[in-house]
Amino acid sequence: DAGVTQSPTHLIKTRGQHVTLRCSPISGHKSVSWYQQVLGQGPQFIFQYYEKEERGRGNFPDRFSARQFPNYSSELNVNALLLGDSALYLCASSLDRGHYEQYFGPGTRLTVT
Amino acid sequence: GQNIDQPTEMTATEGAIVQINCTYQTSGFNGLFWYQQHAGEAPTFLSYNVLDGLEEKGRFSSFLSRSKGYSYLLLKELQMKDSASYLCAAPRGNAGNMLTFGGGTRLMVKP
């Protein structure tokens, strides 16, 4: 079975631009969470979606938004990119929002110049 | 709020034992996680402790003391491939898998 997949793998954007990152959860998993990991730090929680609804939001500005589709895949959108948005963006999927086992995708490395 | 602290870096010798500590302050308690993350890769699940005590899984063990807000990950018979970052994490509030992570402990295993 395929694990969590994310696209693109790497991305370079300019300040002020917007970006869309994509995540496909493990088949049968209905919950998707997004994390931002700045180099040298632990991941920081951004959003969790379950059954296409936002179930949790971390301490990130409104420039960050996400959605989940009927097939449970998800997109993370970031507008008005700042240099500080450069990070590894991780997607994690789990069966449901309360299930402790979650599996992380390989991440998207975003560089903002 | 939540606060999770762990050492930034540790070095150990191949074949030895290393203990990575984590202290946490959370509003409510819903377990404590440990993840392993090799450089440039995704975190992978190691353990989840809800009750006090030591849980052993092969070369890796995890300990929890809820009264002290303290956990540790014990790695035995260290191998070079154990060089990685080890992340301590706790659920945010009552949500089982919306996690707050510590900064991670970068472990370097030397021959």
Note down, in words, how this protein is organized:
The complex is a heterodimer of chains A (113) and B (111). Chain A has strands at residues 5-7, 10-13, 19-24, 31-37, 44-50, 53-57, 64-68, 74-78, 87-94, 103-104, 108-112. In chain A, a hairpin with an 8-residue loop joins strand 9 (87-94) and strand 10 (103-104). By secondary structure, chain A is mainly beta. The relative contact order of chain A is 0.33. In chain A, the strands form 2 sheets. In chain A, strands 2, 4, 5, 6, 9, 10 and 11 form a 7-stranded mixed β-sheet that branches. Chain A has a 4-stranded antiparallel β-sheet with strand order 1-3-8-7, with no helix packed on it. Chain A contains no helices and 11 strands. The N and C termini of chain A lie far apart (37 Å). The mean pLDDT of chain B is 93. Chain B has 111 residues and is mainly β. Chain B is globular. At the A-B interface, strand 4, strand 5, strand 9 and strand 10 of A face strand 5, strand 9 and strand 10 of B.
Offer a concise description of the structure.
The complex is a heterodimer of chains A (113) and B (111). With 113 residues, chain A is mostly beta strands.
Structural class of chain A: mainly beta
The amount of beta strand of chain A, in percent, is: over 45%
Helix content of chain A: under 10%
- N- to C-terminal separation of chain B? 41 Å
Q: Identify low-pLDDT runs of chain B.
A: none
What's the total helix number of chain A?
0
Q: Helical amount among residues of chain B, as a percent range?
A: under 10%
Which structural class is indicated by helix and strand composition of chain B? mainly beta
Shape of chain A: globular
